[in-house]
Amino acid sequence: MKKVMLFLIFLIVIISIICLFKNKKKEISNSNNNYEIFSFYKKQNLERYEKYKAKTNLSYKDTIIQVNIGLDNSYYTNTKEITLFNSLMLVNKYNYVSKDFKIPNLKPVKEFAKDNMYLEKECMTSFVKMARDAKSNNLNLRAISTYRSYEYQENLYNNYVKVDGIRKADTYSARPGFSEHHTGLAIDIDNIKSNYLNFENTEEFNWLQENAYKYGFILRYPKDKENITGYIYEPWHYRYVGIKVASYIKKNNITFEEYYYEFLDN
Ligand SMILES: [Zn+2]
User: Fold this and answer.
1) How far, in Å, is the centroid of ligand 1 from the Cα of 8?
2) At the topology level of CATH, where does 80-264 sit?
3) Which of 100, 152, 208, 265 is least surrounded, with the fewest CB atoms within 10 Å of its CB?
């Protein structure tokens, strides 16, 4: 009798252990499924997704995108060199270009710009078209900073660091190689009359808010997206991505980082 009882207890313990194990396995595979339904899910990042989601409580989709951007690690870690020019290339605090990176078709901006401004050809013609249309509405758009060489950015950044220290300088200035201005696809804009730092309070800014996407431009570092772009709100900095992508980004109120890691990262 005693033996039978012992055997039964033993059996119950074994069955319980098997059930527990099976449930655990099911839990893990369920959680995998939550991520796997997204085409931009990367198997090798699963552990990072789980850690980041536990920390941030974001949706599964945003968790995947933000981890793929690299945001679960601090800025300037696990950086990747971009070697080829592409009009939808992403240069940010995780992706950089080298000192001798070449932009095909770098052209001078002959109208609506300060002296010695250069942009990639398609970006330049789109900007000039946009500035011309703004002008016909009595608004002045002027390119005040466009393509920058590595050396130029190096000087600029080092001077900011001297004044403000690395921590603060990093919030508004890119380290050399990591500036979008290296791509020839980014423009800082003012309205001639007032300092660019005040651009947000101008008619020209309001017009760009309504119309920039029609010419293929996006406001690259929007308000309340600092945690994704890594930069403070910059009402003056625009990036050329083409009309189709600019329209999608505006309509969905996302950053270029989010667009890139949802549709272009492969
Ligand atoms: Zn800029």
Assistant:
1) 74
2) Muramoyl-pentapeptide Carboxypeptidase; domain 2 (3.30.1380)
3) 100
